[in-house]
Amino acid sequence: MTMHRLIRKIFRLLCLLMIAALLYSVWLRDVVPPTWHASLDPISFGIISVFTVWVALWLYRIRFRYRDLTMEKVDDMDGFEFERFIAYVLKRNGFRHVKVTQESGDQGVDIIATKDKVKYGVQCKRYNGFVGNHAVQEVWSGKEYYQLDDAIVLTNSEFSDSAQELAGELGVTLIDRDRLRKMIKRLPG
To answer: Are strands 111-115 and 96-100 parallel, antiparallel or unpaired?
Structure first.
């Protein structure tokens, strides 16, 4: 069992215990014998406290996980981490219904997102060199496959001249390192 699945199971159990603790605190405390209060009161308080702290830490992690992120740290991400990071950046830049597609066999679209009622397919390329035509071709075919309205190739690098020319012909939007840096500035700091 992976750590992620174990944490989810523990959280589900904690949610059930939280419901039971709230039921006891709000309605059942007057029903149970007073001799049980000495045991059940601290137990329910402890469960409610642990649940509250867990949720607060989870929300903090979600909100500030990329706090003070530099482009050098982005350059060090692996491909899948970069895709998840870009999904977060898109959400913080006004995109809705952001979904990372499967990690392999994604038909050239890593992320599907909506903004202003337009469905976008996003191809993420974490590169050290220039991103070429292949990325533009992949996202274009993925756009057709998923029946999307527009296509974007987003990179932490730069695009080759031929990729820029092809993207212009096909109507694919290119987001390079400088534009990505501007999008990252909108993250909570």
So the answer is: antiparallel
